[in-house]
Every structure is written in C-alpha cells, then in structure tokens.
C-alpha cells in the first residue's frame, strides 16, 4: 500500500492483536468501566478470556453458559480480578439454543440492574463439528445451524429489542470465524451458520443505527479453546493433515484482539487519496467504530458523522489550523511527528484538550522504552509500526517486544522482581502456583513462548528444562498497578508442582477430574484392571449401567440416592469416554432433548413397564389433555411449539389439591429485605450523595441534582399530540370517578339524647408515589396514583421515577406530574427511591405514606420502611406478580377470552393467568386454546407469554356457583366475567381487586382510562385489601360533643365501666363534672 499513512491500517489489524495494550501503547475510546457487559459462552475459552479483560477494566460482567460447574470456576477467577467491591459479577446457567432460553438468560442478568438491559452483548457461544456433508444426518445439519447461528441470533434478538424499548445506546458484538468468508472441505456443517451470522451482522450494523446501537462482528482464526481437542477427535483424518500447518491462536490473544476491535477499528488513508463520505459511512455501517480521516475530509464530514466516530489525521505543522468547528467534529487526533518529542507533543496536546491523543512517529528511529514511559505519563498513546518490533534483541532499528512489554512495569520489591501467578489455560484458568519474574525472564518467555521465570536463588528458571514438565505460554498480563503478572500456560509432564501434582494447591476434583482420569485410563489402563475391562467388554459395561440405574431407582434416602447416582454417573461417563463423547457433548444432547420433550409423550418402552397396583396421585393437580382425542374435536392448528395452558377438573381434585391451585409464588421477603437493607441504610445516612451514586450505578445516569421542582419546563413535556390527548381523556375519566368517592360531608350521629358523634376525613399531608421505569414508560401509573392524591387534597405529592441514562425523566410522566400538581419529581428508582421518601434527604421531602407498584427490590424496601418505627411511614399494600382470572361459559367469545388471558400473561414470566371454564365443551375449550396460541405468536413478548402460560391453569367447573366460589377463594387482582348473566354474577363476588363485566369490558380499559384504579392487591390480598382509591389518601378523625343532659344520661355508664376496669381516674373525670352540674 503506497504512502506512510496506510501503514497504520495494517498495524491495527495485525500487530495490535498481540499484547501491545498491556504495555499501554494502545488505548480504546470505548470504556467498559461501570458498564454492564453480557458475555455468552463465558465459562471457558474466548468468552472467559474476554470477561476477564472486562472485569479488570472495571465492568459489571454477566457470563452465561450451560455448565454450572465451569461457571462456578469462572466466577472464582473473575472475582479475583475485580478492581472494585461495587462491581457486579454474576453467572447464569441457561441453554441459548432456543429463543425462550435466550430471553430468560437476558432477563435474569438484568435483575441486579432493576430490569435494565446490559450495555454490551458479547456473543461468544457456539460450537463447531468438522465433518463431511454426506456423513451428517438431518438432525446433525439442524444442530450445526443451531450451534453456529441461532445460539447468537436469539440472544441478539432478545437484547436489541430490549435496548430499543429502553432507549439504551448499546453495543452488540458477534463472534464469527474466517469461515464466515470462505469455507473448506469438512466444514459444511459449521460454515453455513457462520455465513448466515455474518449476513445478520451486516444487516444489523446499518439497521441499528436508527437506535444508536453499535453492531460489530469479530472473525478469529482457529483458536486453541478447551473444546478444540474434542473437535479434533471428530475431525476426519484428511482434514487434520490439511490443517497441520495452521498454528492457530490462543483464546487470550483472540480476546485481546476482539476487545481492541470493540470500538477501535480504525482506517487511515493518505491525504492524496482520501475516501469519500459514502465510503466512510459504509465502513461505519459495517461495524467500524472510528475512521481516521485527513483534515480536508473532516471538514466535509462535519455535521454528517457523529464526532465519536472520527479521529483527525494531522502533522505538527497543521495542528494550529484546526478550527473549533473541526475540533468539535472529532473525538481524537492522530498526530504524525518526526520523532517522539515530549515537549512538542505536550504543547500540541494543549490544542486538543478532551480529545484522545495518538502519536505516530514518522522517523525510522525506533522509540525507546524511555519514550514509551514518557508518553504514558503524558496521556498520549504511541503507535508503533510492526516493522519496528522484533522478537530478537533490541537494536537501533527495532524494539524487542519483551522490552516494550516490560517498559511500563514497576516493581515494589527491593529485588526488583514481579510476583507472578501461573494459571492453567486448559484447566479453566486454575492457579498452578506462585513464582517471580524479572525483566530478563519476561523477555525470554515472550521470545521463546515457554514458561521462564526468575528463581530468587538460582537465577533464570526455564520451567521443565530438566524435568520435562515444560509450559507453553498462552498469554501474559500485567495487573492494574503494573507491579505483578499472570502467565496463562498449557502445562505438560507430571504437573506444575515439584511434588508431581497438577498444582501447588492440590488436585482437580468433581466430574472434570473423573473425565480426565477416564481419558487417561483409556490410553494407559493396565491389563486386567477393572477400568480396562469396562472399556473392552461392552456387555459388562452395559450390565453395570443397568444395575446401577436399578439401584438408583430403588434408593430412597438422600445418602443412598447420592451414592447410587455417583455410581451410575461413573459407569455412564466411562461409556461416553470410550465413545469419544465429552461432558460438553452430553450437555448439548440434553439441550436438544429438552426442546423435544413437550412434543413427545415420554412413555417408557414396554420392556421397562410392569403392571402396578394403582396408587393415589401425588401430583398437585390432576391434568386432563388440553386437546381431547374425541373424533368430533377439531384439530388444534398453529405453531409446532404451541402455547397451551394446563387443564384441571375441579370435580376430581381433593381438598388439598384444590388448596394448591390457589397458591402463588411467594416473595422470599426475609432474603430480599436483607439485600435491600444496605441500600436503604446508605440513603438514610448519606442522603443525596447516596442517591447520586446509585443513579450512576443502576441507571447509568450522572446527576447533579436529585429533584425536579415545579414549574416544569414546556420543553420537558413535549409530547405527540395523540399521546397528549389520550392522557388528557384518561385524566378526565379517572378524576371524575375518584372525585365521586370523596366524602362530601362529615358523618354525624346522635347515639343517645345529648351525645353526638362525628367522623370527618382529612388528607394525608405528604405522600410519595413510585412510578416504575426501566423497561417501560408508565404515565398510566402516575395518573392512577396522582389523581386520587390530588382529589383527596394531599398538600405535598412527591413522584419518584428512575431517570434515563442522560439524567432526564420521560416527558409523559412529567406532563402527568404537572396535571396532578406534584410538588417534586424524585429522579430515583428501586429501594433507594423508597428510602429517600421514607426518611427524607437534604432535597427530598419526607412523606407519610408511600404508594405504587415495583419489582421485588421496591416491594422489599416498602416492607422494610413500614416496619421501621424511625421512618413513621405506611404503604398502600404488598405487591406481587400481575394476575387475572377469567370466568367463561359457552356464551364467551373464544377470541375475547384468549385476548383477556394474554393481556396479563405478557407482563412477565411470573404472571398468574387462570381460566375458569363453566360447562365448556371439549370443542369450545380447544377453540379458546387455539386462539391463545395464535394470538400469542403474534405478540412481540411471545417468549415471556410462553413461559407464563405454561404455568397457568384452565379449571373446569360444573356451574356458575362453583366458578364464583373458586374465584372468591382465589381472590384475583383482576376478575373478568364472560357469562350469560354477567351483571347478575357481580352480586356474588366477595374477593377481587377489580371486576370487568361482560364481553366488551377488557381489563386494558381499567388499566388505562375507564376511570377505576389499576393499582390493585395481588397474591390473594384482595381478601383484606382494597385497590388504591381516594380514601387511601385520607385518614378519618372522630369527634364527640356531650351536653349536660347527655352527661347525666351517659356518665353513670362510664363510671361503672371505669370502676370495673380499675381505672379510677377515668371515673373521676366524669364524677367531678356530674358533681358540678
């Protein structure tokens, strides 16, 4: 490529995939610190290596994989790398090969962040199976696409939808392969999925610009991952020979390259032939995060391309020609200089304060280690052409890579050595031991690729030089303070420890240790040994598996079940190792079977079934087929993965089974209160400072103030006219109904002549209203809580809602705050918002009662402060998952009934949905289920619906009376009645949050605008709680006035009762008055 400028492109693509970032020679504009990064395939290999980098750079990290044991090991490693106690580091065990699993995993990872989607998705999960096309069956072909394409596509789909809904400017990084561009023999099972993944990434790179979401794809070559050896066992011999010259790359190196490329893909072209504006736009569309452009092109790009996407290419002579307008067009400067002159660079850097500063010396003289250190202190990033780096000794023309790596390191030891942790790359990063390194040993290790350390007594220690226990160095890294190191190695020979063990901290354990032992025994078990007999005698192995399976079935105590299961696992794993099957293969098969279980009856084969005496059912409910096999019943159509409810017949349920039907998932209140207490205590003791910190941590918002006070600015309430009109109409209806609830006059009763008793209402002076945010905009909740407070006459209304990442509040909620006369908007969510309102802060007024729904953190915080006598605050009611019970007879419209069920099922996977079917025929029930399936698959939240409906119920009853009795016992939040005499049934309803009567009264109308309140009791609390209403915001005071005549009549009664209770002073208060009359 002609021109010196083009050199930088090749350097970034080739050289910076090595360890240059460890030296501080290259930095990234994208900073993961305090961001939530979600890594699939995060338990081993590339995913784990990437997660380690992210943790060390201060990110909150969630890793997802199938194998819980490997996840636990990975978490231990990641925890050891954290740089702050505030970092959230979690693991989640899910299969990502279907949409439901991908959604569930992402939802679980969002819980610690109050439902907020991760800031970045790194999709590293996948598996390859090198085979010839004709050797695959149809199932293998489908599996290939699943493990190469769908396993990432499903996660991306779930994540991007959440990012768009929550308006999060996120990042999605796919992991492809060189096979995404070209394929070879033996890869017909794997390459099609990677080609498809590349097509998906290309399309999303431009589509997601609409939402400010960055989409990139990384294309590593062969990686020596933990699954690589297993892959080679399946690889045809011809393919192995063809790949003998492919040295591959380590997952550490791949992760470093991927990390640098994340937000750091640069292009540089000479001034003479700059790219066009369209070309720059195309590169950015395809995933480049930045393009380095000359000054002439920067002028053309001003106002067209966001500044964070551009770096300005300059030389020292043109630096002063950069105007403020151009300076605002870019996020960094790449300065070409004749040499590394720190005085000159420091003066030039003053022109570009706040911008990233890169230095590319044009002199052929190699930069010195001193200049590397000086530039690091200056805050500049040195760019070194690959031609100036060497594995040989440093010379006048080339810098040794080891010397460059060591340059920024600083020892805090008198002997100048660096403590070095040696970890096993092929054993999940387990620590092998502690050694020491010197600059000399580090340089030799980098140059030779072998483990070389510094003995404090004997000088250079080339590990395994005499024992044969050599190490292949996969990567080496400096810690955050640049004073200690980590060597990741592949250990050969007897092990790392001089005692001949795998590690200096003991041996491996658990299933991985068993698998490793069996793999060794397969190769070297002595003749006559029991293990060799098992490997060589398939009949014996089969008999032992059958024997142990039978003993496991017969085991009853915990100890026996554990013991027999261990025996069965041993023999089963022996068969797997003999067949070349790994634990990872078993997990993949389990995932495949899990997908098919609902479509298979699951009956045992005839040889395993024996007639038994019928026993009482021990299940909670007795189920009947969702689709009876009667010839007259129509076949249910729809998707293969049909969404169907469980069906029970109430007439066949015992009392205990009926009671189980009424139960809901119970919030583990003690556990949640223990988790939320530290948050509440922080706000209580530190006030606004704690709120601001929690906003940065949980909401990614940098706040200068926690409160918005009226008058609210017009620009903060700019709304679509249709939305504004809808809010206005809803406000009018809700206000009208709640105003009618207000007491117009005191209650006055003369209980006996001369004795008058009165009761009158007064508003609760200060109330707090919690309006959830995060995944949804909820002006309706603000209306439902604010209007009754306004009608009741509350003097101070504090409305709390989480801020967006820019620190603002959604305009819909601000507009409602204006309508209801809110005295303040608190920019906080979760337990911290509840604490601020309960105790008050420097700026947040203390309230007397807190209202509003929320997640388990909000609920736990409300329960905690209500029971704290120092807070002196009450709450509206306990909260739980959304729920609906629908009663329908043959007059119910199946489409209406199904829609009513789904309107609550889409709230979340814990939503409670019940259909009470009154004398419905099998045909009508099948029709309703068909409508549920078809309508559900048309919803964006179909994966959530699938999970909630799967746990929901159809309860068959004989008549209206049974249906209403069951409903009263269930006490639902929402009750919808589809009966021929729906209005007549209302008089029999005793327990329900709100009732929706007749076919044209969908629950949605009550949720938004009919006039009733949608803040209702859940979890069966409708037995003792009302929904929020005007009286919820008032308290009642009683008074009494007694005349002389009244006291003459009542006084003797009071004296008698006071004397009876032994309260003489009470009686005397009456006696002195009677004596004076």
Automatic annotation (TrEMBL):
MF GO annotations: 3-dehydrosphinganine reductase activity; ATP binding; histidinol dehydrogenase activity; metal ion binding; NAD binding; phosphoribosyl-AMP cyclohydrolase activity; phosphoribosyl-ATP diphosphatase activity
Q: Does the keyword Transferase apply?
A: no
Q: Which reaction does it catalyse?
A: 1-(5-phospho-beta-D-ribosyl)-ATP + H2O = 1-(5-phospho-beta-D-ribosyl)-5'-AMP + diphosphate + H(+); sphinganine + NADP(+) = 3-oxosphinganine + NADPH + H(+); L-histidinol + 2 NAD(+) + H2O = L-histidine + 2 NADH + 3 H(+); 1-(5-phospho-beta-D-ribosyl)-5'-AMP + H2O = 1-(5-phospho-beta-D-ribosyl)-5-[(5-phospho-beta-D-ribosylamino)methylideneamino]imidazole-4-carboxamide
Question: Which is a Gene Ontology cellular component entry for this protein?
Answer: endoplasmic reticulum
Which Pfam families would you find in this protein's record? adh_short (PF00106), Histidinol_dh (PF00815), PRA-CH (PF01502), PRA-PH (PF01503)
Q: Cite the Phosphoribosyl-AMP cyclohydrolase domain residue spans from the record.
A: 434-505
In terms of InterPro entries, this protein maps to: Ald_DH/histidinol_DH (IPR016161), HisE (IPR008179), Histidinol_DH_CS (IPR001692), Hstdl_DH (IPR012131), KDSR-like (IPR045022), NAD(P)-bd_dom_sf (IPR036291), PRib-ATP_PPHydrolase-like (IPR021130), PRib_AMP_CycHydrolase_dom (IPR002496)
Output the GO biological process annotations, alphabetical, semicolon-separated. Answer: 3-keto-sphinganine metabolic process; L-histidine biosynthetic process; sphingolipid biosynthetic process
The principal localisation class reads: endoplasmic reticulum
Q: Where does the source fall among the domains of life?
A: Eukaryota
Q: Hey, which pathway is this one from?
A: Amino-acid biosynthesis; L-histidine biosynthesis; L-histidine from 5-phospho-alpha-D-ribose 1-diphosphate: step 2/9; Amino-acid biosynthesis; L-histidine biosynthesis; L-histidine from 5-phospho-alpha-D-ribose 1-diphosphate: step 9/9; Lipid metabolism; sphingolipid metabolism; Sphingolipid metabolism
Entry keyword set: Amino-acid biosynthesis, ATP-binding, Histidine biosynthesis, Hydrolase, Lipid metabolism, Membrane, Metal-binding, Multifunctional enzyme, NAD, Nucleotide-binding, Oxidoreductase, Sphingolipid metabolism, Transmembrane, Transmembrane helix, Zinc
Q: Give the required cofactors.
A: Zn(2+)
**TM spans (from-to):** 6-26
Which subcellular locations apply to this protein? Endoplasmic reticulum
Q: What is its EC number?
A: 1.1.1.102, 1.1.1.23, 3.5.4.19, 3.6.1.31
- In residue numbers, the region (Disordered) covers 598-618
UniProt similarity note: In the C-terminal section; belongs to the histidinol dehydrogenase family.
Which NCBIfam families does the annotation name? hisD (TIGR00069), histidine_hisI (TIGR03188)
Protein's job: Catalyzes the reduction of 3'-oxosphinganine (3-ketodihydrosphingosine/KDS) to sphinganine (dihydrosphingosine/DHS), the second step of de novo sphingolipid biosynthesis.
Identification of the protein by name: Histidine biosynthesis trifunctional protein
Its source organism is Rhizoctonia solani
């Amino acid at each position: 490529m002609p021109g010196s400028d083009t050199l930088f492109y090749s350097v970034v693509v080739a050289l910076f995939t090595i360890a240059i970032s460890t030296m501080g020679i290259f930095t990234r504009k994208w900073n993961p610190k305090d961001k939530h990064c979600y890594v699939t395939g995060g338990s081993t290999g590339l995913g784990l290596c990437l997660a380690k980098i992210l943790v060390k750079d201060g990110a909150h990290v969630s890793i997802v994989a199938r194998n819980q044991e490997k996840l636990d090991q990975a978490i231990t490693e990641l925890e050891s790398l954290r740089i702050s106690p505030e970092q959230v580091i979690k693991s989640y065990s899910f299969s990502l090969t279907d949409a439901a699993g991908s959604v569930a995993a992402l939802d679980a990872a969002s819980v610690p962040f109050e439902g907020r989607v991760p800031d970045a998705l790194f999709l590293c999960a996948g598996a390859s199976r090198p085979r010839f096309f004709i050797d695959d069956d149809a199932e293998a072909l489908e599996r290939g696409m699943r493990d190469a394409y769908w396993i990432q596509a499903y996660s991306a789909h779930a994540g991007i939808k959440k990012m768009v809904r929550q308006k999060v400017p996120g990042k999605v990084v796919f992991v492809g392969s060189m096979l995404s561009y070209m394929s070879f023999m033996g890869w017909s099972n794997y390459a099609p999925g990677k080609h498809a993944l590349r097509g998906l990434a290309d399309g999303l790179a431009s589509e997601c610009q609409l939402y400010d979401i960055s989409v990139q794809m990384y294309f590593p070559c062969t990686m020596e991952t933990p699954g690589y050896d297993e892959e080679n066992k399946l690889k045809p011999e011809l393919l192995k020979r063809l790949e003998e010259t492919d040295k591959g790359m380590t997952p550490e190196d791949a992760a470093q390259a991927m990390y640098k490329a994340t937000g750091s893909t640069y292009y540089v072209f000479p001034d003479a032939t700059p790219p066009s504006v369209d070309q720059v736009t195309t590169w950015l569309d395809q995933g480049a995060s930045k393009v380095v452009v000359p000054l002439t092109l920067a002028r053309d790009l001003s106002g067209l391309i966001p500044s964070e996407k551009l770096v300005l290419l300059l030389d020292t002579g043109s630096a002063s020609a950069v105007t403020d307008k151009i300076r605002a067009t870019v996020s960094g400067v790449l300065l070409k200089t004749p040499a590394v002159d720190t005085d000159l660079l420091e003066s030039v850097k003053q022109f570009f304060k706040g911008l990233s500063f890169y230095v590319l010396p044009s002199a052929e003289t190699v930069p010195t280690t001193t200049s590397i250190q000086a530039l690091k202190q200056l805050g500049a990033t040195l760019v070194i052409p690959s031609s100036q780096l060497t594995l040989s000794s440093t010379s006048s023309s080339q810098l040794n890579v080891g010397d460059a790596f060591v340059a920024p390191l600083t020892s805090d030891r008198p002997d100048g050595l660096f403590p070095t942790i040696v970890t096993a790359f092929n054993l999940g990063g387990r620590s092998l031991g502690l050694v020491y390194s010197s600059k000399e040993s580090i340089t030799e290790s980098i140059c030779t690729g072998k483990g070389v350390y510094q003995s404090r007594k004997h000088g250079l220690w080339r590990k395994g030089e005499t024992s044969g226990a050599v190490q292949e160095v996969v990567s080496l890294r400096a810690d955050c303070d640049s004073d200690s190191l980590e060597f990741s190695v592949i250990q050969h020979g007897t092990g790392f420890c001089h005692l001949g063990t795998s590690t200096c901290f003991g041996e491996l354990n658990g299933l991985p240790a068993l698998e490793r032992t069996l793999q060794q025994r397969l190769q070297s078990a002595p003749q006559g040994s029991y293990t060799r007999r098992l490997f060589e005698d398939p009949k014996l192995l089969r008999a032992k598996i059958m024997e142990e399976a039978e003993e496991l079935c017969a085991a009853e105590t915990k100890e026996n079940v554990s013991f027999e299961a261990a025996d069965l696992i041993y023999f089963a794993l022996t068969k797997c190792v003999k067949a070349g099957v790994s634990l990872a293969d078993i997990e993949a098969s389990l995932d495949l079977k899990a997908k098919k279980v609902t479509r298979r009856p699951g009956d045992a084969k005839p040889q395993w079934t024996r007639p038994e005496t019928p026993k009482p059912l021990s299940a909670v409910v007795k189920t009947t087929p969702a689709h009876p096999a009667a010839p007259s019943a129509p076949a249910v159509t729809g998707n293969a993965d049909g969404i169907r409810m469980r069906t029970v017949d109430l007439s066949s349920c015992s009392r205990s089974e009926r009671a189980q039907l009424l139960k809901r998932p119970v919030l583990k209140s003690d556990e949640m209160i223990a988790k939320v207490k530290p948050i509440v205590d922080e706000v209580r003791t530190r006030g606004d400072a704690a709120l601001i910190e929690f906003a940065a941590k949980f909401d990614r918002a940098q706040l200068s103030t926690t409160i918005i006070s009226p008058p609210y600015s017009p620009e903060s309430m700019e709304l679509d006219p249709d939305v504004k009109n809808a809010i206005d109409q809803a406000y009018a209806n809700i206000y009208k109904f709640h105003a009618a609830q207000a007491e117009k006059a005191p209650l006055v009763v003369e209980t006996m002549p001369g004795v008058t008793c009165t009761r009158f209402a007064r508003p609760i002076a200060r109330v707090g209203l919690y309006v959830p945010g995060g995944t949804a905009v909820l002006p309706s909740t603000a209306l439902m809580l604010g209007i009754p407070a306004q009608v009741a006459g509350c003097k101070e209304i504090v409305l709390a809602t989480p801020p967006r990442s820019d620190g603002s509040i959604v305009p819909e909620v601000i507009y409602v705050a204006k309508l209801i006369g809110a005295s303040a908007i608190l920019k906080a969510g979760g337990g911290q918002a509840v604490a601020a309102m309960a105790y008050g802060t420097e700026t947040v007024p203390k309230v007397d009662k807190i209202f509003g729904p929320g997640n388990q953190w909000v609920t736990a915080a409300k329960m905690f402060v209500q029971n704290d006598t120092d807070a002196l605050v009450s709450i509206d009611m306990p909260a739980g998952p959304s729920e609906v019970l629908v009663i329908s007879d043959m007059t119910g419209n199946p489409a209406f009934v199904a829609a009513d069920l789904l309107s609550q099922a889409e709230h979340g996977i814990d939503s409670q949905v019940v259909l009470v079917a009154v004398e419905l025929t099998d045909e009508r029930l099948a029709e309703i289920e068909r409508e549920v399936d078809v309508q559900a698959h048309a919803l964006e939240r179909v994966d959530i619906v699938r999970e909630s409906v799967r746990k929901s119920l159809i309860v068959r009853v004989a008549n209206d009376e049974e249906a209403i009795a069951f409903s009263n016992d269930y006490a639902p939040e929402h009750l919808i009645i589809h009966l021929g005499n729906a209005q007549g049934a209302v008089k029999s309803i005793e327990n329900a949050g709100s009732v929706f009567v007749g076919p044209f009264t969908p629950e949605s109308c009550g949720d938004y605008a009919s006039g009733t309140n949608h803040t209702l009791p859940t979890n069966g609390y409708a037995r003792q709680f009302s929904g929020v209403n005007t009286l919820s915001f008032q308290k009642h005071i009683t008074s009494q006035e007694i005349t002389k005549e009244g006291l003459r009549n009542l006084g003797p009664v009071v004296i008698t009762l006071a004397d009876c209770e032994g309260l003489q002073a009470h009686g005397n208060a009456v006696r002195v008055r009677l004596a004076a009359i």
